[in-house]
Amino acid sequence: MKEKIIISASKLFKKYGFKKVNIEDICKEAGISRVTFYKYFRNKTELSLEYLQKLFDENISKYEEIINSEIEFDEKLQQVIEHKLKIAGEFSMDFIKELYHSDIPEIKSFFEEQIKLNQIKTIEFIENAKNQNYIKPEIPTNYILYHLNNLIKELQDEKLYSFFSNSTELTHTIIETFFYGIIKNKQ
């Protein structure tokens, strides 16, 4: 029953964000009573945190699966970006905005901690790529991280999506531009 509540809430959170969804909405979606809801969760914030933990755990697992695979670096990077785009596409702008700018202290704290963990993993990925000569070692890791974070911000701009017919084209262009620039190769 607990999983059913989380799944029902996730559908609503993805579509409307946290603020617009109330416990009654979640109960209706799950086909349960408020009493049943409170058997498993003290409040909507507790449910939200459990849902977010599950979401981030699943994404970290997928990220590690890609990073630890035997494929080439550029393919790993493309798969990581495609996965991030796929996940981002599942959520409404309200959800994304509320996650990045939550006024609920527990959610804000949780999200900030997840960002720190994500940055640690990204730094490890960059350092490994430098050690394997996929990335120029003279470029500071923090500079690369800064640009990657700006790419994530750009991906929150809906206008960007209008330039491309699909997410594969968008992902390919991001990778090509980031790694090879905009100047045509003279070969």
Q: How is the secondary structure organized here?
A:
Elements: H1 2-16, H2 23-30, H3 34-40, H4 44-67, H5 73-89, H6 93-100, H7 105-131, H8 141-154, H9 158-161, H10 167-180
Architecture overview:
This protein is elongated. With 187 residues, the protein is mainly α. It has helices at residues 2-16, 23-30, 34-40, 44-67, 73-89, 93-100, 105-131, 141-154, 158-161, 167-180. The protein is built from 10 helices and no strands. It has one domain (44-180): Orthogonal Bundle (Tetracycline Repressor, domain 2).
Query: Cα-atom Rg, whole angstroms?
Result: 19 Å
CATH architecture classification: Orthogonal Bundle
For the secondary structure, the number of strands is 0
What is the CATH top level name? Mainly Alpha
What is the approximate shape? elongated
- Average pLDDT across residues? 87
Biggest β-sheet description = none
CATH topology: Tetracycline Repressor, domain 2
Give the count of helical stretches.
Answer: 10
Q: What is the subunit organization of this protein?
A: single chain
Structural class: mainly alpha
Strand residue content = under 5%
Helix content: over 70%
User: Low-confidence spans: pLDDT under 50, at least 5 residues?
Assistant: none
Distance, first to last CA? 61 Å
Q: How would you spell out the order of helices and strands? A: HHHHHHHHHH
Number of domains: 1
Keywords:
single chain, 187 residues, mainly alpha, Tetracycline Repressor, domain 2, elongated
Summarize the structure.
By secondary structure, the chain is mainly alpha-helical. The protein has helices at 2-16, 23-30, 34-40, 44-67, 73-89, 93-100, 105-131, 141-154, 158-161, 167-180.
